[in-house]
Every structure is written in structure tokens, then in C-alpha cells.
Amino acid sequence: MIFDFNEAWTRVSESNYDVCVCGTGPAGITVARKLATRGKKVLLLEGGGLEYSDQSQHLYDGKSVGRKYWSVENTRLRYFGGTSNHWSGRCGAFDPIDFEAREYFGMPGWPISQDQVIKGMEEAQEIVDIVGKDLSPYDDPRFASRLFRQSGFALSPPTRFAEKYDGEIRGSERIDLFYNANLTDLKLSDDLSRVRSLVVKNFNGQKLDVSVPRYVVALGAIENARILLNANRQMPEGIGNGRGWVGRCFMEHLNVPIGRFIVTDTQFWQKEVALVPTAEFLRQSNIGNGIVSFGPNSSPQSYGRLRVLKQFVRETGCALPRMTEVMRQVVDFDCPGDGLVTSLIEQSPNPDSRVTLVNDTDRFGLRRIQLNWNVSERDKKTIRLLAIKTAEEMARLDLARVQLAPFITNPNLDIEIGAHAHHMGTTRMAATSDLGVVNENCQVFGVENLYIAGSSIFPTGGGTNPTLTIVKLALRLAEFLAARN
Fold first, then answer.
1. Prediction pTM value
2. What residue segments make up the domains of the chain, in order of their start?
3. DSSP symbol at 366
4. DSSP state letter for 137
5. Nearest 5°: phi and psi at 464?
6. Which of 5, 2, 46, 3 is nearest to 204 (CA)?
7. Quick one: fold of 2-128+158-252+424-482?
């Protein structure tokens, strides 16, 4: 059933729930639905409404102080369905190497194996409407390379979780969804080993302490870290932050405009070609994973400090073909119809890339976030090597000729790096609390009934879109919780 916490806030106390799930994005809805099928009574809380509102969205306002990042409030959505409401729908599966301990990252990898994650992947594929799709990288005989394979992926419609599961949740006897229900604090037991209750507030000023046996926080990578850091009344550094890892290792998938290309084999170029590096190439080169995409007729976008200038010159220079090359001597830009080389590249885990709090507070008294997005020299090495090697392979096979962006070939230039709005890593999973926030079962170290869901638990970001893996890990968490007494 679905209720407005602004009006029906006292109804929460009328039922006995087994689990409280905070957040209604792909992770939260998946956990709640799976627990319900296993016979558990679930309280599902959404801080926003059923539709977008400025009132709710502005609670995400924050500061960006590191590498230039899109506004931290607009890369996620705060209402029923979460960020699935503007998800583009690309789905991929993490590669086996993504789960390996890559020592050159300087941080441990996943404490679980790929097999533990992909087991039962069919259920996750059904949830995002890509049933039966093969997501494995594949060899194309026309692209015979030792270094790269073609990326396997599938496109979800995309699935809007609120739209798809609204009717199911409304009719459910085991899920009660309360929207306009804002999580503002976590209260621990006297010995700090358990969550005793959550403090939930509506937009009218009422608040309620919610007590259930187990709690799942699934608010997104930035907000998961934010609520743990704000919950500092009993633990001054915040819950789960005894070793200082909450908020650290914020990762993105790097969106770099690598260059342009012209086709030399028209028979080969019937569609976009997306290349992924082989595991052997990654190990030999000590770099991160990623996808380099060649779109023969792409719609260009601009990033970085010259974005506004590029947009202006594109509108003028691309309309006058004779002027294009002249204007490109002033600033490099792409024109509609150019063959463009774009990317989704793994960012290595970096403790200095992090979410912290500032003293400014929102209407509920929660301190707002400050994002210091930090891209390392290893990330720049990954970008440049993947770009150069894919260009070389295209030339070697006589499929295309690539003109790389100047910042790829000139190490003295700063790389133009955008982001794909894939927030990851701020409550990372680890074998011990020395290097992470949650264990292999997504339980916050030292707090036996508190769990985190979503991409904030990713120790590494992998080289593909995260949503399918978020859903699969949410199913895994729900199965673990359902087996508890």
C-alpha cells in the first residue's frame, strides 16, 4: 500500500514490520519486493513525493570543490523511483577482472567473487526488462584484436521503477510505502551495536521514531554517506566511520571525448562499435577497465572548461563547412555527423576523492554535502592508453582513421573529463573495517542490524554501467535478510 507521510504519518506505528528500507530507487524497490516475496513485512520510505518537486530536490543541494563536476543536486532525483526516473537504460555485466585484487590500484578489490554476483542474474535482467540478452563481450571476426573485444550490453526500455512497480506496491499486503518520509537520524543502542530506531520527518514538521528489527539504507551513493556522517550524536565521526572510510573513494565513470574518426571500410560500419579491453591487456598495462565507443554519426556534446565556447563555435563553424578547419585552429570542436569516439572509463578507488559535510544545513537540520571529486594520474594513464590503443587497432585493421583529441597525445595538457552521473564507492565493501564500511553481506561493520544497498558499496567501479549490478546486489542482500530469523 502507498501512503503520504505528510498526512498518514501515525499509521507507521500501527503495523509490525520486519525490515525498513529507506529509498525507492532500483536498489530500495528491489530489496523491498524481494523481501515481500519471501514473506517479510516491509516498511518502504521515500523522502520525496510521487512526482518531482523543488521542495524535495533542493534537499540535495551541495558544494563541489574538486575537479569540476556537474551540480551535485541534478545528477540524482529525489522522488518515487529515484534516479531510475532519468536513467538512460544501458545495462552491462561486470567483467571477472573487475572483482580481482588489482594491486596497482593501491586498494583491495571486492571481497566477493564475480560468481557470487552473477548467480541468478536472470532475475535481475527480468527486473530491468532485458530478459535473455547476452551481456558477454564477444569476438567479431572483422575486428581481430588481441587487445580488445566488442562490448556486450543491452538496452532497457529504460525501466522506470516507479511506473513499473507502482501497481504492485499499491496492491501489496506486505509492503507499505510512505512518501514524504525523510530519514533524518539513526539512533543506536546504548552499546552502539544496533540501530534502535530511525527518526523520520515529514514536510509539515511532524517526526516519528521508527523501530523495526532490521534497516536498509538505499538513498544513493552521496546520500548514503551523508546520513551516516550526519548520524553523529552517539558516534562523533558518524555511524560506520570509525576508520574514516565513510564518504571516501567516491567514483564516477569518466566521460572523455576522445576524438573523431573517418570510416575506411564502409561495410564494417553499420552501427556504433563499442570496444572493451581484454583482461590480459589490463593486467599488462596496470590500468582500469572501460568502454571506448565509435559512433559513425554521433551528436556531439561538450565538457570541461571550454564547454560554452565549443557550443558557440559549433553553432557557427559547423554551419559553414569552409570555416570549420580554420575555427578548429582556435578551439577543437565536433560537428553533427562526425564520427566521434566517446568513452565510459573506470575510475580507480581514491581515498582523496570523497564526500564530506559542510556547516550549512537543510530544512531538517542535516548538514549538506561537499564533493571533492579527485581524478588520479592512474586514471589519466587509463584514458590515454585506451584511446591510443583503440585508435591504433582501427588503423591496423584498416577500419577507420582516428584523430585523437590533443589532450590525449600531449601529456602536458589537462584531459577534458566529464562524468556519467554514476555515483559509487562512498560506503565501500571490504573484508574488514580497516578498508571499508560494509562487509560482504552489506552490513555496516559493528552495527549488526544496519545494511547499505546501492552502488555506494562498490569497492571498484568496473568498466560498465552500474544499474544491473545494483539490482543484482540488492537481490543478494534481500535473500540474505530473508534468511534471518
1. 0.91
2. 2-128+158-252+424-482
3. P
4. -
5. -150, 170
6. 5
7. FAD/NAD(P)-binding domain (3.50.50)
